[in-house]
Specification:
CATH class of the largest domain: Alpha Beta
CATH topology of the largest domain: Cobalt-precorrin-4 Transmethylase, domain 1
Radius of gyration: 21 Å
Shape: flat
Number of domains: 3
Number of strands: 12
Helix content: 25-40%
Structural class: alpha/beta
CATH superfamily of the largest domain: 4-hydroxy-3-methylbut-2-enyl diphosphate reductase, catalytic domain
Strand content: 15-25%
CATH architecture of the largest domain: 3-Layer(aba) Sandwich
Largest sheet: 4 strands, parallel
């Protein structure tokens, strides 16, 4: 069986940057998981003594605090500053962009529509930058717009890891009801590239393996895209989740990985697949 990697996969610019920042600040604390990959988080903890604080109360007065790639709500950042922590900002620049847009457009009197998951840390941070929270709304489907008390002018942004075609549905729905719309395409370019590459590979693969955190939005999107063209598509976090039956009688195994998945995990998965096929051959 042949194994082929997608032409674009794995660590994006923002995640690489965050990992490097964390490694440069050994012994610090990240507020929330730095990225959505528990194996890489464990590597940072074991190799660089970097702990996670999941709540502000868990942060000690002497801690240097690394802000996660997804960012944090504006009010929580203000608390950290007030407590005079050393703050190391690893927020992805692609995430600070919608934060700044929401702040500016809200100040200019626009209703804000954010296409994204309301429980995702990135979106919790982005919406907090609206000056008027009563006119900042988070939606996942166009039908949700009908009940919203939107002003005549609306600014719309997207979670960085969403599909462009789904974002377009929100924009089109707004165009039919509002006189003025400001559309900001805040979907990360790395997301485009990884999704397109995964789709192309899935069209010819007999089985697709998507590697990444189960709580990672962009990894789940990759898996969803692969399923459209390859029904035998599986989402795993590491090589321990591989199942031999997935590869029986398969000729081409495609591999993609989410933006928070490091190369060492990808290589472990490749090694695991190769070992499965080796045992299969030995057993006839």
């Amino acid at each position: 069986m042949q194994i082929e990697l997608a032409s674009s996969y794995g660590f994006c610019f923002g995640v690489k940057r965050a990992i490097e920042i964390a490694e440069d600040h050994r012994g610090s604390v990240t507020y929330g998981p730095l990225i959505h990959n528990k194996d890489e988080i464990n590597r940072l903890k074991q190799g660089f003594n970097i702990d996670i604080a999941r709540d502000l109360d868990e942060i000690q007065t002497t801690d240097a605090v690394v802000i996660r790639t997804h960012g944090i709500p504006k009010e929580e950042l203000a608390i950290l500053h007030a407590q005079e922590h050393k703050i190391i900002d690893a927020t992805c620049p692609y995430v600070t962009t919608p934060q700044n847009i929401v702040k500016k457009m809200s100040e200019e009197g626009y209703s804000i529509v954010i296409f994204g998951d309301k429980d995702h840390p990135e979106i919790k941070g982005v919406v907090s930058y609206a000056e008027d929270l009563s006119h900042a709304f988070i939606v996942l489907e166009a039908k949700e717009l009908e009940a919203l008390p939107l002003k005549g002018k609306v600014a719309v942004v997207s979670q960085t890891t969403k599909k462009p075609e789904d974002f377009a549905k929100i924009v089109i729905a707004l165009m039919s009801t509002r006189k003025e719309i400001r559309v900001f395409n805040t979907i990360c370019t790395a997301t485009f590239e990884n999704q397109d590459a995964a789709s192309e590979l899935a069209k010819k693969a007999d089985v697709m393996i998507v590697i990444g955190g189960k709580h990672s939005s962009n990894t789940k999107q990759l898996h969803s895209i692969c399923l459209r063209d390859c029904t035998d598509s599986y989402l795993i976090e590491n090589e321990t989740e591989l199942t031999a039956s997935w590869f029986k009688d398969k000729k081409l195994c495609g591999i993609s990985a989410g933006a928070s998945t490091p190369d060492w995990i990808v290589q472990n998965v490749i090694n695991g697949i190769q070992e499965i096929k080796k045992i299969e051959i030995q057993n006839g």
